[in-house]
Amino acid sequence: MVAKNQVDSPALECIGLVKQFNSVLAVSNFSVSIPRCNILALLGPSGCGKTTALRLISGFEHPDAGSIAIGGQIVNDQSHTTPPEKRRVGMVFQESALFPHLSVEENIAYGLLKDSNRKQRTSEILDLIGLNQQRNRMPHELSGGQQQRVALGRALAPQPHILLLDEPFSNLDSKLREQVRRDVVNILKATGITAIFVTHDQEEALYVGDTIAIMNQGAIEQIGSPKDIFHRPITKFVAQFIGMVDFLPAKPCKGGLDTEIGFIPCSGQASNRLDIISKDRKDLVELMIRPDCLECAPVDRGSDVIIGREFRGAFYLYKIELSSGRIVRCLLPHTAEYDIGTNVMVTIREGHYPQAFIDERPIDLNSIEKAVMY
Predict the structure, then answer these.
(1) CB-based contacts of 175: which residues, under 8 Å, 6+ apart?
(2) Contact between residue 120 and residue 193 where contact means Cβ atoms under 8 Å apart
(3) How crowded is residue 314: how many other Cβ atoms within 10 Å of its Cβ?
(4) Which tens digit of pLDDT belongs to each residue from 191-249?
(5) Contact indicator for 186, 219 with CB cutoff of 8 Å
(6) pLDDT: is 282 or 363 the higher one?
(7) Taken in order 286, 290, 293, 299, is the CA torsion positive or negative?
(8) Closest Cα to residue 293, out of 352, 359, 245?
C-alpha cells in the first residue's frame, strides 16, 4: 500500500540543485515542483543547463548540493543517492537510439521483466503508439516519426514515475515535427504520466507544456502557465526569449503612460506609483510591445515608415521605423498589403494593454486597469 503523503506529494521535487563542471556552473539553485500528470516544458537558450538538469534528475549526474524527490521518495541528497535504474525514470533522447538489430516489438519489450505480463504490456504500448501493424519491422524500415514513437513506447513500457524528453523532435523536419509533437502530447495525456520536456523552441514549449519553466544561466528565471509566461514575464530576459517583443520608453503622466504610439491608461494606484518611482528618471519606464499588439495604417503625412516586410502566409510581419528612429514590428492579416516606404500611423490595437517595466522589472499588473493582453 502506498502511503497517503506519497500519493499527495508532487511527482517530482527538486530543491536547490547545484552542479559545477570544473569552473563552469552548469546548474545553480535549480528548484521545481511538478504535480502528478503534469507536463513541464523546460525552455531556455543553448548552454543554460537544461540537459544537465535532466541528467541530475535521472541519476546520470550527481548534484553538488540540493535534493531530489520522485513520487515523495528522496532519491538524492547529501547523504543518499538512488542509482538510475531504481529511480523509475524514463528517458527519450534527441536521437531515437533504438537497437538496430531488434524489431519494433523487441525494442519496446527490452526493458520489461521476462514474466507473464511482458507480452500483454508490449501489446498495450504498441496500441498506444499506433504501431501494432509495424510490430515486426526493423528500425531502419520506419519513418523518423515512427522511430520516435517507438522510443517513446520503450520509455513508457516499464511504467516510470516520470518521463524525461530531451529535445526529442530536433532531428525531424518541420512538417513531421508538428505531427509527431501532437501525437506525443496525446500519448502522454492518455497515459497520465508526469513529464519534463526540454526544448529551445518557444512555439513547441507553448504547445506542449501545462507549465513552462524558463532557464537562464543554470537557474529557473520564471515558472508558470504558458499564458502567464507569454503575457506576464517577470524579467526582460523572459519577455525577449518567449516570442517576438520590442520595448518602447513611456512617460508617466496623469492617468497613465504617454508613448509615441499612444496613451496607456492606468489605475490611480499604478499611476501614483509610476510617478513616484520615475520622478527623477523619466527614462526608467518601458512598454513591452508584441507585434500582435499593434495596428498600422497608411496616412498621407505619417511620420512612421515601413522599412521591412515579411510574408508569412496568412499574415504580414512589418518592420516600422517610428519618428524617434526606434523600430517596432507589427503583425497584420495578409489583406493588409503595404509597400516598403509607405508612411503609416502605428497605434496600440484596441483591447491590448502592454505590460510596463521599470528597471527591467514588471509593474504590478493588478494595479493597471484591464491589465491583460487580450
Answers:
(1) none
(2) no
(3) 8
(4) 999 999 999 888 899 999 999 999 999 999 999 999 999 988 999 999 999 989 999 99
(5) no
(6) 363
(7) positive
(8) 352
Q: b/e for 106-123, b at 16 or more Cβ within 10 A?
A: bbbbeebeeeeeeeebbe
Using CA of residue 286, residue 244, residue 364, residue 31, what is the dihedral sign?
Answer: negative
**Grid coordinates given for 355:** 505590460
The angle formed by the CA atoms of residues 190, 194 and 197, to the nearest 5 degrees, is: 100
Q: What is the pLDDT of residues 257-291, one digit of tens each?
A: 888 998 877 765 656 666 665 565 555 688 899 99
pLDDT of 134 over the 80 cut: yes
Strand order in the sheet with 39-43: 89-92, 162-166, 194-199, 39-43, 211-216, 219-224
Q: Cell digits for 197?
A: 520536456
Cβ contacts of residue 364 below 8 Å, gap of 6+?
270, 273
One DSSP character per residue, 271-336 reads HHHHHHHTSS-TT-EEEEE-GGGEEEEE-TT-SEEEEEEEE-SSEEEEEEE-TTS-EEEEEEETT-
CB atoms < 10 A from the CB of 32, how many? 19
Instruction: Please say whether the beta carbons of 304 and 296 come within 8 A.
Output: yes
Cβ 276 vs Cβ 325: under 8 Å: no
Complete domains list, the chain, with CATH = 4-88+160-240 (3.40.50.300), 244-367 (2.40.50.140)
Q: Which amino acid is at 47?
A: G
Q: CA torsion sign, 232 to 238 to 240 to 246?
A: positive
Amino acid, res. 15: I
